[in-house]
Amino acid sequence: MEGGVGLRGALDWAKEKSVRDIFELSISLEVNSQDLYLKMERRVEGKKAKKVFEVLSENEKTHLERLNSFFEKSLREEE
Fold it and tell me: Is 30:1 a contact under the CB 8 Å cutoff?
């Protein structure tokens, strides 16, 4: 899973957490992943290698945008 968190550990952790807590963790993991890919893109050499990390970073950005959208929607529904 994202950020080196194992699936079993994440599921166990989530059992006792609120939806808000789960969203916040998910968002932070996506941010960390995107940051890692951006750093890797800057450090690797070669156009193809840079492109791989650019694409991965863009995917994480898309995940982050979707998570934020769902999170905001869930907050509105709680009101």
Answer: no
